[in-house]
Structures are given as C-alpha cells and as structure tokens.
C-alpha cells in the first residue's frame, strides 16, 4: 500500500504569509488530489493533478512525479483559508484512493 | 446547487439503535462512496458502489450495510449502533471509479453513539 505523509501536521501563520503544505508518498501514482475541509464543514476538492502545476486564485498545487512529492501553496493567506488540507493519492484501497491524515492550518488575523 | 446531499447532518443514537444515513447526488455520477473520518486518521472507505446495482466492501465495512437504491441514491445503514461507530460520515461520488476522476463530497453527518 502506498504510504502518504503530509507535513506539517499543524501550521499556524499570520495573515498575508505564504503557506506551503507538503505531501510525500512512497509508490508511483497516476494522480493526486488536494482537498479542503473547513471546521465542522464538508470537504471540497481543490485540485486533481498528474503532472506540473495548477493554479486557482491564490492556491497553487505542484507535483513532481519523479520525486514522489506534491506541494500546496497559498499566497497572501487569509483567515478564511483556515482549514484542514488533505492530500489524496491514487492506488491502494478498493476505491483506488489513499488519504493523508491532513494538515491543520490556522491563519491568524 | 449540483452536488452531494447528505442527511441528517447530526445524529445521536443509543447503543443498539439502528439508523440509515441518506446520500443523493444530482450529477449523474456512476460511482458513489461512504467514508468515515476519525480524529488523527485519514478518511477510510466503508462501502462503495462502482455503478448502479453493485456494492462492495471497503476498508472498514463491519457493522454497516449499504443500498444503491438507484443511480442517484446510496444509503448507509447501521443495524445496531456501537460507540465505536461514533464518527463523521462522508458520502462522495465520481463520474467513474478511479483516481483520475474528480470526487465530490457531501457535507458530512456527525454521528454520536452513546
């Protein structure tokens, strides 16, 4: 089974800071997802990527297939970005997905 | 708004009671899933339905049953609730099974079994 590790587990930053969340995995994959979960809320799919980089607003996701690593960046962070960010890999499990444990991000005003 | 709708949002059960969690999607997706989320753990797959008329066990199916009522609806039933089933439950759907397809999640059901 693919092992997925997210870092950091918890991150507190000030509004406006540039945020980076990392996801590393052990076995090659065909795609990776980044999900966002607000406190007490549902889960939103942010990105699905298999190579290179994707950008949506202030969010940027990159993946390096050779190094088995993906990053999620948030520029000009805002308190509304406070959420748990979850990395999801293809491969493993009946549904083909392996979920990371998430990074708990708090942006203070 | 198009998406996945779960009901109820909150539920408290006594040990041994039964209940059904409802899930419906209006995106004409073929595949649907039930996950549970526990503190300190990633989402774990309970059951899934690759297409209408089929259901299969996931990673943690014990104590649960499912029904794919039609293409839109996929319900999760707890026949005799146990405190270990206290969790947040998420339903999700995708056009087809496979990591190269986007997944849409419901807003979750927070279940407490006392």
Structure in words:
The complex is a heterodimer of chains A (109) and B (114). The N and C termini of chain A lie far apart (40 Å). Helix content of chain A is 0%, strand content 58%. Chain A is globular, with a radius of gyration of 13 Å. In chain A, a hairpin with a 6-residue loop joins strand 9 (83-90) and strand 10. Chain A is an all-beta fold. Chain B is mainly beta. Chain B has no helices and 11 strands. In chain B, the strands form 2 sheets. In chain B, strands 2, 4, 5, 6, 9, 10 and 11 form a 7-stranded mixed β-sheet that branches. Chain B has a 4-stranded antiparallel β-sheet with strand order 1-3-8-7, with no helix packed on it. Chain B starts with a strand and ends with a strand. Chain A binds chain B through residues 4, 29-33, 35, 41-45, 48, 50, 86, 88-91, 93-102, and chain B through 33, 40-45, 48, 56-59, 90, 92, 97-108.
Helical element count of chain B? Answer: 0
Q: What does the oligomeric state look like here?
A: heterodimer
Q: Strand-and-helix sequence of chain B, N→C?
A: EEEEEEEEEEE
Distance between the termini of chain B: 35 Å
Q: Outline of this structure?
A:
The complex is a heterodimer of chains A (109) and B (114). Chain A is mainly beta.
Topology at a glance:
The complex is a heterodimer of chains A (109) and B (114).
Chain A: E1 4-7, E2 10-14, E3 19-25, E4 32-37, E5 43-49, E6 52-56, E7 59-64, E8 69-74, E9 83-90, E10 97-99, E11 103-108
Parallel strand pairs in A: 2-11
Antiparallel strand pairs in A: 1-3, 3-8, 4-5, 4-9, 6-7, 7-8, 9-10, 9-11
Chain B: E1 4-7, E2 10-13, E3 19-25, E4 31-37, E5 44-49, E6 56-57, E7 64-68, E8 74-78, E9 87-94, E10 103-105, E11 109-113
Parallel strand pairs in B: 2-11
Antiparallel strand pairs in B: 1-3, 3-8, 4-5, 4-9, 5-6, 7-8, 9-10, 9-11
């Amino acid at each position: 089974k693919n092992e997925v590790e997210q870092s950091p587990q918890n991150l507190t930053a000030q509004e406006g800071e540039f945020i980076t969340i990392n996801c590393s995995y052990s076995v090659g994959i065909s795609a990776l997802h980044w999900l966002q979960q607000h406190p007490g809320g549902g889960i939103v799919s942010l990105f699905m990527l298999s190579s290179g980089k994707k950008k949506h607003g202030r969010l940027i996701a990159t993946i390096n297939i050779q190094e088995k690593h993906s990053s999620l960046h948030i520029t000009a962070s805002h308190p509304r970005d406070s959420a748990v960010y979850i990395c999801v890999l293809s491969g493993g499990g009946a549904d083909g997905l392996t979920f990371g444990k998430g990074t708990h991000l708090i942006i203070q005003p | 708004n198009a998406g996945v709708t779960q009901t109820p949002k909150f539920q408290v059960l006594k040990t041994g009671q039964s209940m059904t969690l409802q899930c419906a999607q209006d995106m004409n997706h073929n595949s649907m899933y039930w996950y549970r989320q526990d503190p300190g753990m990633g989402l774990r797959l309970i059951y899934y339905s690759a297409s209408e008329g089929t259901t299969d066990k996931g990673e943690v199916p014990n104590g649960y049953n499912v029904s794919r009522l039609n293409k839109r609806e996929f319900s999760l039933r707890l026949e005799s609730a146990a405190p270990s089933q206290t969790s947040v439950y998420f339903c999700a759907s995708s056009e087809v099974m496979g990591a190269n397809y986007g997944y849409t999640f419901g807003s979750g059901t927070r279940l407490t079994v006392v």
